[in-house]
């Protein structure tokens, strides 16, 4: 059987054991930490072109199994792909259509999977976005609370401010802003499952007089400048390159003159937004985030500026997201027996690869996470941003 393997595999020294459908085993290096069980003989040809997309698809479809610590599975799989295919990134992306119906369906596919499933591995407030680690030693719970404070401080959120939360998820940030900073909050989402639980939590905390959450597309936001501050967390990834201008214009129209807008979202490595990681992006498009597209920081800053907003601060939290995903992945791995009762086996396979794979991608710099703070200038060109950032960090 060894003679049938692609010649390049015989020359590798990876801690990977191949277990074939007939029970034979081949070690590609000493002391294997990961075992790949090939259940379909036709996959031998795939091993000659082991993109992360094709390997991931074979695992999701049950044609091969992977055993070993999941982060090590990702590391070894990435090393195998790089050794055979080199380190070339994908071609320029084929931008996708983003109408309201398509976006609503894509959001439902990802976020309406199961509230109980997400609860297994997120923090208690179910904050499904990059946490913030001021010292690098925080656990997930404290890092997520630190992130919420970080956002609110950057927005200079004050008691009585009217805050728009675009893509409010399970309402963690909306409730936090109301409870800790005294803000009034209007949050929007396209996920019915998230909205139901978010409203329950608002009621449970007695915040119904301060927090209103609703099912609404960002394209239908009021454009009368009624909000003092706007925050958008983990939303821009779903907008699409073709709609970035509309998205930024809607944020501009929603906030008053002198108000602040915070966009917190994943950004692409390359200015044209093409995927990286030898098929990793293709896997995510196919199985995790249909119609998701990552803008480059430069593109997003340009569109925000074109809308009339003035970018006043940019911060990369790439390594913060790598650590957050490592926590999420570890939490899920520790509760696999519960997870398999909540979602189909194929979905669980997708999520195991996705969380660990994204941790690897952020660690390697294949993708980034940027917080972009922008101001809507007053008529005379002034704005309300303090002269220094000292107020953001003093409380840390």
From TrEMBL:
Gene Ontology process terms (BP): lipid biosynthetic process; methylation
InterPro entries: CFA/CMAS, CfaB-like, CMAS, DUF7884, SAM-dependent_MTases_sf
Record-listed E.C. numbers: 2.1.1.79
Catalytic center residues: 358
Keywords: Lipid metabolism, Methyltransferase, S-adenosyl-L-methionine, Transferase
Sequence intervals crossing the membrane: none
Stretches assigned to coiled coil: none
Protein's recorded name: Cyclopropane-fatty-acyl-phospholipid synthase
């Amino acid at each position: 059987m060894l003679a049938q393997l692609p010649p390049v595999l015989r020359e590798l020294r990876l801690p990977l054991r191949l277990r074939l459908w007939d029970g034979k085993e081949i070690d590609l290096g000493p002391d294997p930490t990961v075992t790949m069980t090939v259940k379909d003989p036709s996959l031998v040809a795939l091993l000659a072109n082991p993109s992360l997309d094709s390997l991931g698809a074979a695992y999701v479809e049950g044609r091969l199994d992977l055993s070993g610590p999941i982060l090590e599975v990702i590391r070894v799989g990435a090393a195998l792909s790089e050794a055979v295919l080199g380190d070339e990134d994908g071609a320029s992306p084929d931008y996708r259509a983003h109408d309201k119906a398509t976006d609503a369906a894509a959001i439902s596919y990802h976020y309406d999977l199961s509230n109980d499933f997400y609860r297994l591995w997120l923090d208690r407030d179910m904050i499904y976005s990059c946490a913030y680690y001021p010292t690098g030693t925080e656990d997930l719970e404290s890092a997520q609370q630190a992130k919420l404070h970080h956002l609110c401080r950057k927005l200079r959120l004050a008691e009585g401010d009217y805050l728009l939360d675009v893509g409010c998820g399970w309402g963690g940030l909306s409730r936090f802003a109301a409870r800790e900073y005294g803000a009034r909050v209007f949050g929007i989402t396209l996920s019915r499952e998230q909205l139901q639980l978010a409203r329950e939590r608002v009621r449970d905390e007695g915040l119904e007089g301060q927090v209103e959450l609703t099912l609404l597309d960002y394209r239908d936001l009021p454009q009368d400048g009624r909000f003092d501050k706007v925050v958008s967390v983990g939303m821009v990834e779903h907008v699409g390159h073709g709609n970035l201008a509309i998205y930024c214009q809607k944020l501009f129209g929603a906030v008053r003159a002198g108000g602040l807008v915070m966009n917190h979202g994943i950004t692409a490595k390359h200015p044209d937004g093409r995927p990286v990681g030898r098929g990793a992006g293709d896997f995510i498009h196919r199985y995790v985030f249909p119609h998701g597209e990552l803008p480059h920081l430069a593109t997003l800053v340009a569109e925000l500026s074109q809308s009339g907003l003035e970018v006043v601060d940019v911060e990369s939290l790439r390594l913060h997201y790598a650590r957050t995903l490592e926590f999420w992945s570890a939490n899920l791995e520790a509760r696999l027996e519960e997870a398999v009762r909540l979602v189909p086996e194929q979905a669980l396979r997708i999520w195991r690869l996705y969380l660990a794979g994204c941790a690897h991608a952020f660690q390697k710099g294949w993708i980034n996470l940027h917080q972009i703070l922008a101001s809507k200038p007053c008529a005379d060109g002034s704005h309300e941003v303090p002269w220094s950032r000292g107020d953001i960090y003093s409380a840390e």
